[in-house]
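Predict the 3D structure for this chain.
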Amino acid sequence: DEPVLVVGSTLVVGIALGIPWALITGPLVTQQLLTNLTQGPSLASVVLAGIVLPLVAQALMLVGPLIVYVIRRSYDEALDGFTFGVACALGFTLSTTLIEVWPELSQGLISPTTSLTYMLDVVQRGLLVPLLNASTTGVIAGAFWLNRGELRRHMSHNLFSSIPSALAIAAILQAALGVVNVLISNEVAVVMVYTLAVGLLLFWVRIAIHHMLLAEAVDVVIGDLAPCSHCHRMVPRMAFCPHCGIATRATPKSGVGRAGRVSRKGATCLLYTSPSPRDRQK
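Done. Predicted structure below.
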């Protein structure tokens, strides 16, 4: 439910940064991998291609959301930052991936590469890498936005939602998977490692967002009845829906559940009233 212009601009920033990054670093990484195959991996190639370049790429993916963070202070929720971080990371990944695989795409439909190799490459580039970049960038940006608004004191420095922990986990994952790409030449093994890492990362993202929403739930006042935009039941206005448990800040900002004040009389409430058991039978 974020404005299309703001989300689109962060996406465009990611695409614009990814194009020169791929053009500059692509040949360098390819040369390092060829050197590793012929002469064996060196410490310089592991540090450069496996650690430095992935960390710099992660920093570039944060440029878009940090620009919004500085110039648009009207967005003060963790999921705002998470949305902007995901958009910029996916734009960056899109442009870099297209440039990296363009030589293969230009060969046409016939290629001596085996189907298994192509399938593994598609899974890694088209699914696992976008999930990796979007998750790490989104959580880091969400942690920045979390410190912008009012927070519950005992939740403000949680391990799962603080800026240092988000930066540390993202850096460790990006560097570790970069080293895997340099040292391991077996495609099956690389995809298996990526799958395990991304699976654990998504689990961490789920917990981090959960703790961010808990930290933002500073409004403990119970308000008037309002329709929940998730379960559509008339419930008291609270930080979390007492029926389905969804956080109010995780619902659309333009929805009536965010407006929060609906008259108990009239057709508006009737539209969101759950049917009785007799009506369900009918």
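The CA atoms of residues 66 and 141 lie 7 Å apart.
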